[in-house]
Request: fold
Amino acid sequence: MPFTIGWAEWVALPDLGLPAIKAKVDTGARTSALHAFQVEPFGPPSTPMVRFGIHPIPGRTDVVITCSAPVIDQREVTSSNGERETRCVIATSVSIGERSWPIEVTLANRETMAYRMLLGRQAIRGDVRVDPAASYLQPRLGYRLYRHLPRQDLVHRPLRIALLTRRPGSASNRRLAAAAAARGHVLEPLDLGRMALVIDAAEPLLLVGNTPVAHYDAVVPRLSPGDGAFGAAAVRQLEMMGSYAVNPGDALDRLLNPVATKQKLIARAVPLPVETLSTESETKARAGRPFAASLRFLVVGREVAAVLERRLGKDYDASGRKLGDERAMAVAAAEALELRLAGIDIGETRSGPAVLRVSAAPALGGFETVTGARVAEPVIADIESRVRSWRRIEPAQRALGEAAG
Reply:
């Protein structure tokens, strides 16, 4: 028995996180098309990706879904008004009623169209039949499905992640790139040495050479000591452009000031070696020198991912030791300094365990080599937990959404 659809149907595109779209079925069009704006290709040439935004509800620009998908082709398409343009082509699955099947879709701005999707004849295959005199023969969906998406839904799409570094080939950065790729994301290095900031109230920009940097979902700062205030400013610029920063620019700025860092830790009751600072900037340690042995904690998010013990200049795996107080101290230090990726050194002083040093760019490769733990994966997982794929509808607009559904 043929599967019959009308000239208009409710469809879902689950691979793109779109639970309800009104589609016009057009057998006169060869290729299907989906509404998209801010179409941004990214990723390596061998596996190109594209990210784009979509307003799934006509007339409701406040409801935005951000999608990502592999690019399978670049195709020249003639629009209904006779204009020819090159469009990205993606592969996805479409669901209508109880049926689902794979289709190819071109991305085009259909903001002025009543239907956010056009279903062309290439997508109408097998036993699918079109009744041009009927519409919505299959079960209706409704835009209210967007209103019921949980606010804290985790992202289920590939992410575009910037790696801000001068050393993209370091062991730690290679591990981060591999961990991102294994989870379906793309991590792209940005060379801090070629960057310039455009300080503009209307549109903050970041340039690499003369090319504006596109939007990234997240940024992982891997700054060197010499990057200083400019490195922190570059991270802050990406934040102003809408990126989530694992370690924010303001936090990196604070680390450049050792006294401000210590004051922030003391304010959160994190133990430090006692020091006296004079106007001549001389420091007198009143608690004595730390012992030769110290512990280095890798904190990712709000968890300890690995622990090293340094004895006589050599690192040993200490991840299996309980170290309850020291672990809590390391997490508290990272939280106080607003860092979600940090190396925290803790040593024993006359007053007990205390934080000796904080790094916002810990050597992940060193932790993995000594402990055998895979520590890059938790970094990517923490980014996933912080980046959202949709924007909440304001309460005052909900009634409009219900009426539209």
